[in-house]
Amino acid sequence: MTKELRKILLDASSGRGDLWKETEVASRILLAGGYPGHNEDIVALEDVKDCIELENLISRGAWYFQETDTWKEEAWTDYCPGCNVAYCRGRYTTGQCE
Ligand SMILES: [Zn+2]
């Protein structure tokens, strides 16, 4: 992992700013590593320049970290402001409420 990417992930995982909770959780998982596919996820993110770009990229792709227990337990427990349903995947995957 590059120094730049580590800094972006640290920023995103701190919960500051306007990032989605999903981005914060993803950053924590990416920093911790230790799951199958971690290297592939990091390589795919190596060129991001800031937290916004990180969020855009993460929200569009399919990632190995999405298979981790941490992600399944933490990322989808907030309620969608659009439909007031927890686990609204549309909001995260396309940005549009389903
Ligand atoms: Zn929704």
Could you please describe the fold and organization of this structure?
This protein is 53% helix and 0% strand. It is mostly helical and 98 residues long. It has one domain. The model has no long low-confidence stretch (mean pLDDT 87). The protein binds zinc ion. The site of zinc ion has 9 residues, from helix 6.
Key attributes of the depicted protein:
98 residues; mainly alpha; globular; binds zinc ion
Helix run count: 6
How would you describe the shape? globular
H-E string: HHHHHH
Structural class: mainly alpha
- Counting structural domains, the number is 1
Mean pLDDT: 87
- How far apart are the termini? 35 Å
Bound molecules: zinc ion
Low-confidence regions: none
Largest β-sheet summary: none
Residue fraction in strands: under 5%
Structural Rg? 13 Å
Count of β-strands? 0
**What fraction, in percent, of the residue positions are helical?**
40-55%
Task: Please give a quick description of this structure.
With 98 residues, the protein is an all-alpha fold. Helices cover 53% and strands 0% of the residues. It has six helices and no strands.
Give the secondary structure arrangement, pairings included.
Elements: H1 3-13, H2 21-32, H3 38-45, H4 51-60, H5 69-74, H6 89-93
Helix pairs in contact: 1-2
The chain binds zinc ion.
